[in-house]
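Reply to dn_fold:

You asked what the input looked like. This is it:
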Amino acid sequence: MMKVVEACKSRLRPAKGLYDMILRLGETPQTDELLAKRKLGGMILYRISKQSWTLLQVANVVWFGGINSGILKPAALILFSILPLTALANNNSSLDYNLLCMPNARVSINKLNQPVTLLWKNKPLRQGMQELAMSHRLSLWIDRRIDPNQLLKLQTDQSDTLSTAIERLGKEFELDLGLLENVLYVGPANTLPRLQRAHVVLHDALSKHANQALTKMRVLQWEELATPMSLVQQLESSWSISVSAKLPHDLMHKGAIGSCTLATQLALIGSGFGLEPFWNESESSLGYRLLSSERAWSCSYESKSLGPIARRTADLAKLARRHKGKVTRRGELTLVSGPTALHQALLAQPASGGGTPKNAFANSLYSFEVKNEPVAVVLNSLAGSLGLKLKWDSAVADEQRKQRISLDIKNAKVDELLKQFGQQASLKMERANQTITIRP
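and this is what came back:
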């Protein structure tokens, strides 16, 4: 018992006076004066964690007696010692300046709901990710620990979005894929949620304690054979900052990421070494440390700013359980605690453009690669992905259906894709709404 008390006492140093008062209340016979103090203690605890209904319920037990009877005394003491720790931790991780609410990030989050059609068979990772990022106007960062030449296979269907497509890729190939602001990140499993938390927490800290200029957005680009330390030095120069860092040596291909915040840039540079950037408030400086295992963070949103899923109670509960988070509505505010994926899912708006499914796929851009595959097999797969029907003219010979073709088409509309396919296969492809007719 005393070990529990001492452990809790050491972690409650910021509220030591309150802790000592609770400890005394648990060991002293009840009087009217102490009952009044108990009520005050419960109110103070609730103020410390105004988002914790659990603490309020426990405080009610203390207010109305029972703490000194038998086993309730040590049980109540443990509850009052431990529950505030959780409340304080939640309160400390609640963000006031949410990076996800910046216009740049909101636009990128909405792209998660855009439809995606992919038919990848042995597509090199770097090539596939570049095409995917380009078609959605996102920047790309491939973690140095990932083999950019590994081959990917993915066939989406008509219901797939960018969010579901990258989730499927991640599960299939043990990767983490997702957004850091407006950058599509590809890294090892069990990395992305921790890195996402690190960059939103850093942005919040910079907004609160540092020069406001450090919360703006800038482009980052580098030359062939640049090193992580040279990128850090580049940031120090362009942002007029000092970063305490000694990153291992590595060589990078020439690249760039679009306009984004300093927090995102620092997070990406350190990601390949299992590091996260942080703001040292006591020294008013930036540095790197080992990537925390923490994934969850908390923030309050205006309910009207969230996507439609936040207004559907059943879907909201299901989403919170899936991401092992918590969503609580309080008047015009919605309190969200969980990994970044939960926050993004709640913020995401439906894909713009509306219209019928046929208009959605007709105006989208597709990337398509196939090597030495039979025409009929490829067309069947393509039609299935797009939700189209095939109609073969009887004049098309079996030899033509079985002939093998190779294609590599990038960012083309469906009609252009069919045209190039037909030219390669020496066939005429005609689309009428959802039906493709194939003629010699």
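The first strand starts at residue 94 and ends at 95.
Hope that clears it up.
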